Amino acid sequence: MAGAVAVARGTAPVRRIAVIGGGPGGLYAASLLKRLDPDREVTVFERNAPDDTFGFGVVLSDETLGGIEHADPEVHRALGREFVRWDTIDIVHRGRTHTSGGHGFAALGRRRLLEILHERCAGLGVGLRFRTPAPPAAELAAHHDLVIAADGVHSATRAAHADAFGPDITEHRNRYIWLAADFALDAFRFEIAETPYGVMQLHGYPYAADASTVIVEMREEVWRAAGLDTCDPAESTTRCAKFFTEALDGRPLRSNRSSWLAFRTVTNSRWSHGNTVLIGDAAHTAHFSIGSGTKLAVEDALALAACIEEQPDLPSALTAYEAERRPVVASTQRAAAASLRWFEELAQYVDQPPRRFAFNLLTRSRRVTHDNLRLRDASFTAAVEEEFGCPPGTPPMFTPFRLRGLELRNRVVVSPMDMYSATDGLPGDFHLVHLGARALGGAGLTMTEMVCVSPEGRITPGCTGLWNDEQALAWRRVTDFVHTSAPGAAIGVQLGHSGRKGSTKLMWEGIDQPLDRGNWPLTAASPLPYTPGVSQVPAELDRTGLDAVREQFVESARRAADSGFDLLELHCAHGYLLSGFLSPLTNHRTDAYGGSLEGRLRFPLDVFDAVREVWPPERPMTVRISATDWAEGGTDAEDAVTIARAFAEHGADAIDVSTGQVVPEERPEFGRSYQTPYADRIRNAVDVPVIAVGAISSWDDVNSLLLAGRADLCALARPHLYDPHWTLHAAAEQGYTGPGAPWPLPYRAGSRTPPTGRTDGPKPRLTLG
């Protein structure tokens, strides 16, 4: 059909369509499906009047607009005539405004957006039934080929068929209210107000020549302390204007039946049930601070219409729609969750230096990064780098960092990675090559795997140790190589004891599975097997056992010092012995080493103190912790701050902040840099250097985390397995040749990207008719 969406036409028998909800997603889906086939009968049920709307302005990205332009140029042209465009963000904090440009926004009033979509639907012959609550989805499904549930965050369709859709709804801690100002802000504005009640924030942006959306947000306890929980809408609006008089220049705010809300994150295990499908907020929500609600709904509509045209039948179309959209939505929701958490924890950032605060805010979702921001606004980024202390021409990751008497030439750490390649705890040629290669590869600090303090403290028969002098001599061979062949590189040892997670097979033979033969007895904080019915039941350490384990750590630390290691890390994470004391899920003791967190900390701190006593005073000690167990009733972020503070008070020079692996029933929130919020929180709450770990995969991520003040060092594991020279290549890709990443002399000829064959042909000079 002329002018239709450019997709391969299938044969899905979708003739009668009911749309529940007349928001942008529902209306756009209706118009697209009708435009693709004018013979379809498409009806939209909207319980409100045509001019009823909530909120004020909506923001659409260039990507979304591009999709609209291809699918329906008429709608795109109509939108284009209405848009207000701007490209700057202002961050206002403690009387200072920092402006970042190059961002590119387009917004219009929500009411005008709906009017454009109403007009388009009406022109195409879509039935618009306003002031008409939709019949139940099940009733509509019996008489229609397709039912599109676009009925929002409080979707009645989703609730009625919860057993089929499997919704998961999480309500968050901040309160917010949508308001408007009758003038146009000249940028997207974030303003922070530190009030007697606590920290509040304003998010504002223009959506017309004479109007701006203004969202006021704060923690619930601040909202209550300010008395906003007892205000009527008019009084709330007046009081919010007084909190942000600078942003408003003394002018009032207005509301549209606005009320205070707590954001709800919605996910569903399935988006379709029979011939009923969820789109937009009914299927998923993303926090307003990344401006994706309308964007996601419109993109859902585009994908659904395309899949119906492409697929041979409706079940295939709905399966394809979900397969296409779910990864995109999941990525957006991860970014939105990071942004939401940042604003929930805003109070911990307000004392940051002003430019760092602004950079931190701009990069909070991890979608805007250091490199991306440098392209958008080089002068702003350069000012942030200067405030951070970057020497001229030096990326943040190549600035040096001092821990006690050890100066690291850059901020990159090769994270501890178990190799399971030792015999009787003895490191061999494999470890020399493995660790030596990574040190040659440019990292400021290369860490060993967890080196076990006793034979019974091994995870597997392939784990390395430091319980005898032969092992110490073998480690000396490794440290000598690093110090001689990679001058300026540091090497650290991580000491640990497997606890209840020991006596298992090599990772590739069956991770966490007990050995078929040759098992050794296990000890732990409490007699709890790692996997009930599968793992060995450990013996609970008594006084004699506790003393013996502490002495094993001390003797291994002495050997580590003699072996020439520059730094020692105590492994108190991932469910191994010392971690097992810290978590309430694995420590059920009733003596002085159990119960409260203070009691659970006692033995790990005893071990730390004993090791610190024998570890050379000029050499730093760090501690790796699991900042959350990712399991109900386990260690959480608040506990992690307390644990980190305790170790810092006992002399830890940095906290290596990992998460999980404590109990098998954990439910981690995997994603890019997913563990860094825990490092960020500890760094700001305790004022101790932190090492961030967890799916940090690019040098851009490293630079971004450092500049935002979320970490002091970044530890990467798998990227260094993929590329032992990851750090040197990161320097080359950034055009950096300074002292933070020197190429070993024998490798210097390879410091530039090797040339490849040309792939570009000569450009055409003439066009002949």
TrEMBL record:
Pfam families: FAD_binding_3, NAD_binding_8, Oxidored_FMN. Residues 741-769 are annotated as: Disordered. Residues 397-731 form the NADH:flavin oxidoreductase/NADH oxidase N-terminal domain. Gene3D superfamilies: 3.30.9.20, Aldolase class I, FAD/NAD(P)-binding domain. Transmembrane segments: none annotated. InterPro entries: Aldolase_TIM (IPR013785), FAD-bd (IPR002938), FAD/NAD-bd_sf (IPR036188), OxRdtase_FMN_N (IPR001155), YqjM-like (IPR044152). Residues 145-333 form the FAD-binding domain. This is Bifunctional salicylyl-CoA 5-hydroxylase/oxidoreductase.
